[in-house]
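Aim 2, interim progress. The first record below pairs a target sequence with its structure tokens.
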Amino acid sequence: MPLLLTTPEQHDFQDPTLELNEHKLQRWLAGLPVLNAGESLRMVLNALEPLNEQKLDTNKRLALLAVYQATVKRLYVAAEPARLRQQPLSTEQRQIVVDDVERLSLAMANGFKIVVKQMYGQAALQDKARFGQVLRWSIQQLAAALLHSYRYYRPEPAFVFLEINQIYRLARHHGLQEIVTSDEQGDAQVNLAGIYQAVCLLSLCDPFSLEEGLTDSFYSALLQYAGAARVVPGNSWQGVPEGLFFIDLAGDSQPRHCVYLDSPVEADEPHILDARELLTQMHKTLAALPADRRRQRPEAGVLRVLLPEVTPRDKRSSERLPDGRWIQMLSGFDEVISGLLARRGGDQMNASAWRVKDASEGGYCLAWDESAASLLHVGELVCVLADSEHQDAGPAQLMVVRWLRDGRDEGTELGVELLDGIPGPVTLKVANEPGCEQQSALFLTSANNQGAARLVTAAQVYAEDRILIVYVGEREVTVRCGALLEQAPGFDCFEFTSGG
């Protein structure tokens, strides 16, 4: 069977800058600047990418790649969005880290793919178990690159699904897809088939609409249940194909919902990913939990996005009209409050200019010429202050990011949904809790004196019937938390009633 895997062109020149001694390499990696992820990434890439261009014996290459694995994993974990924001990096430096972690995952995958091609090119495959392990390492690194892209709302790296499909197809051909081996990787007890099926299902979970952190939790949950899914040859089905997903193992595209396809489906190597039992097991897990715990579980989110009858909330039902104007926007709960206070005092606001691609009654589609990796995420609070050409025009508008797509060098697009009302900065504290300090919040007044007023606070302030003391100018108002309207990683939005 033909093997379509991209790898760097290799040469016979012995690069004197490459460290080919495993013990010396281990000491060098241990001496990398732990607190400087950007510099560590640069140094590792400057060693690993040239290694992939050097012709080496298969055993030597695998030995060196094994030494790199722990460091690569550490750098990968350090680049999780929440962790990356905690590091003292500029916006440009964070952007470079995001780019370099993708390069690092793909470079590790390239190293293992070189070995796959070398072993596959032998007249007779001598060590099938070892071949299966290398295949698993290859797909694991490709999955890491894909997961990293989804974390930052980026399109899949070029040809990643072609290669993931190719490796899984090769493993099936040799009967190696379900062999479990022990290694130093984070999901060592998940076989190659489990990784493949989890990646395929994750790509169907609308990752560009997932709140920050959900991509990782969804993937972990899918790995846990992956053994309940199966991939079978075929391009047709009977009845309602809910829980069935179509895959072309010879193609370069992600799976598709069978409910949106007409049976039979034309493809070079058609297969069906049957996830019905997996979804059933997730449902049983949730059914066994108390109602208040179910919504916190990743299984609940996976079921919501994989069941086709569920309408994503970022889909606007009202008519979208082309726009083209420019607006000033603040992003993040703290930045929104700071910007509104600055606006009230006539000071300069740290806002960015976005173009409105289209507008509807409930929100906008916005475009920015730069990459927003590590700057924005789904579920974040944003505030549109004014048209960029008319700074004093109209009241501020609070919105929530519902979907985000970072096109790397092609700029960023996002969809935002309007929160009704006019925001005004206030302060509040939780009543009857000694030592509780005042904190900033936003009071949303009704724009037309209709509907309930609401509060937007930092995350985890809301609790049902909790008593809050709100300070509005010189006034002190006691309120009780009412219905929760929105709970995102960065803020809570809820109605309230007066009095304690």
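The second target in this work package is listed in the same format:
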Amino acid sequence: MICVSYLFFVEWKKGPKNYLKYSPYIFYTLTYLNYLIIPIANIGYFFILAFAVKSFKMREIFIESWVIFYVMVSFNRILEYFIDIKKNIILDAKNYLAQRK
């Protein structure tokens, strides 16, 4: 939640000179965390639960269906990164940084 809030509400192209020195790295780190690292970790955790823990009954308990839903959302985040964010937002950020220097 902190990653998303920071990416939405904190401008990384404007601010004090000290902040502008580190803001692109913060932006890239939070983007990778939000769209790649955390979703991959969630999917990995799901597969550990689904195949290693024998008491994980996907069709019987309500919470497990939410876990499956969240894995689907995580998978969509990974797809969104490669389809949209990498091509548009990361490329725009790289162009902006190249023009700034």
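The chain is about 80% helix and 0% strand. This observation will shape the mutagenesis plan for the next reporting period.
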